[in-house]
Amino acid sequence: MDFREFVCDRLKGAGEIRAKKMFGTYNICLDNINLGVLCKEKWYLKKTAAGDRYLKEKGVTFETGIKGNSYIITDFTNEQFLCELARVTCNELRNLKK
Questions:
Q1: pTM higher than 0.70 for the full model?
Q2: What is the mean pLDDT of each run of 10 residues along the chain (98 residues)?
Q3: Measuring CA to CA, which residue among 54, 37, 61, 42 is closest to residue 89?
Q4: What are the b/e assignments for 59-95, b being 16+ CB within 10 Å?
Q5: Which string of DSSP letters, residue by residue, matches 2-57?
């Protein structure tokens, strides 16, 4: 199983998850909403206010990307936590599109 398949497998409990090939990397999409990109064994999940609230509530912090617009996720052990973070992020991004 490659990294893309591994991440999708860990997130399948969040909903319809898929990896979309994009310029040599993969975008991770949940219910057709792009959540972020996989690159070098890391998932750069888009940073949102809902994600910030969820992480604060759980007492978790992640390193952020260069511009501070993504969380850098390298630990995929807590599947339930990651699925919920993906869901709250997806919901906010979907609402921003409206």
A1: yes
A2: 92 95 91 93 96 96 91 95 97 85
A3: 54
A4: eeebeebeeeebbebeeeeeeeebbebbbbbbebbee
A5: -HHHHHHHHHGGGSSEEEEEETTEEEEEETTEEEEEEETTEEEEEP-HHHHHHHHH
